[in-house]
Amino acid sequence: MDTETFDLFRDTVRRLVDERLIPAEDEVEETDNIPARIADQIREMGLFGLSVPEEFGGLGCTMSEEAAIIRELCRAAIVYRSLIGTTVGIGSQGIVMDGTDEQKAEWLPKFATGEAIASFALTEPEAGSDAGSLRTTAIREGDSYRINGTKRYITNAPRASVFTLMARTEPDVKGSAGISAFILPADTPGITLGKPDKKMGQKGAVTCDVILDDVVLPASAIIGGVPGRGFKTAMKVLDRGRIHIAAVALGMADRLLGMSLEYAMERKQFGQRIADFQLVQAMLADSKVDLLTIEALMRSVAARFDAGEKVSLECSALKYHASEAVGRIADRAVQIFGGAGYMAEYKVERFYRDVRLLRIYEGTSQIQQTIIAKNMIRAAEAA
Amino acid sequence: MKILVPVKRVIDYNVKPRVKADGTGVDLANVKMSMNPFDEIAVEEAIRLKEKGVATEIVAVSVGPAKAQETLRTALAMGADRAILVQTDDEVEPLAVAKILKAIADEETPGLVILGKQAIDDDSNQTGQMLAALTGRPQGTFASEVTVDGDSVTVKREVDGGLETVKLTMPAIVTTDLRLNEPRYASLPNIMKAKSKPLANKTPADYGVDIAPRLKTLKVSEPPVRQAGVKVPDVDTLVAKIKELGIA
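Above: the input entities. Below: the structure tokens describing the complete assembly.
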């Protein structure tokens, strides 16, 4: 995208955030729902199509561009991002990266307009970070598969038109090799949704169980048409997703530090503004350093990802650093706000709870650490 | 029917303007610029008339520096069909803009010219009225509702005493007030499509208009800082104070 177009694009998202999304944050929190008028506006703006290639009606953003837009969007409560998150990221990218031509032609144009919302169904009661231990089975019966199992904490399941579903097609093959990725339309018979989960934060985001009871899908529903490659698809999707999550963290870091600075310069104690106290300055400075290091690392990793470099280690490092750093920034924001920071009427309390999830989903911090170290060891052994 | 929508690139409404140290004007260096909000309302109204099937083509025009092209792209992304940039780096006053717009209107023969009642930078509130005078066409200024019916347009105007409704024979000039509509955001796919919409580059000389300023700016200064008030304990003191200050 040329600079003029991209700038116009980002300015438009910035206005949406300032004029519509931020003013509706309290309504979203109180009703635990994103109002239809806001969801429509997000859809009409075309945000669902960020990562869908242009030939399928999307915007075809590079990772650097997607990250810059997500950063802008996430200056508003990050629950808004969750509306588009699964369609922009993990729910659709499997089809973008590994889908057959027919699968792309069927689904991508609908994702691009937001007509169809995609959701990603990997996690199970007994399988989270250890995705190789999936229990959901897909048993081949002629030209179709019969699927049984339970998926847990599935984001946007009640809104989804389609799931990217991970299931074990080869029960005899242990670990990740026996897993396939299916495109599962949400209206397929045999799907039941659980009660909406009650969560620590991100009110307005919807997650629940997805129960699969004798769901029958044609073999052509396997992403890419070849069974046993589901895990490889998931891994490819995750690198991109980790940069995306770092952009979420960075957008919220912008907001939290902006609020912290503004409050510190207004609030007076002992006859002066608290921003003039050096211990408060130390918190502001530490948060600024955290923010700048997320920004710098994100720029470099996104650019290298766009250049086609293999950056799995760096994607994990970025996601790990960004999610931990925004946690610290949120914690300091509460501290700078003092008593007010603990009160629900000031938004830092809410954002503090919201960003807690960033250290957990799309790979916990501990999983990222493991990936980083394993990559280091593997490289050293190969040298 | 064709609609002509003039748009102006101005200092963004969220920016706090600062006066240049030498008092010659407002400092625009590295300041965010965007479309005049009243002109955004004008673009929106034109698009709505096109969506209703009343208008067939929307032509956006801007008079200003090369960067005004960005403002025209915004209009195209919102839904205008093509754009004309009349490029000049000189200061242009409302009369010069009105003369250029007259020349363009003579060429394009629009059924309606819809423009903002004023620009938020100089607050002149003159261009629409001058254009009406120069072209000899009827004007409906400060519009809060616009209804086209056959070859006439009914404009509900916001005047001091309330609302005045006027019926104009088209072609006509309409200037927009704040409550006419709520402009849409350009969608991201439309921003990308706007790149390929036609944008013609012209100069004031192409229209034979002399844009030399007729007015001379003597000085630009910040508004005086408001003095702090005084708290009084009771009504009697208040009355005494008011008398002392000679207000009542």
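Note for the figure: The interface with chain A takes residues 14, 34, 70, 73-74, 77, 185-192, 194-195 of chain B (CB under 8 Å).
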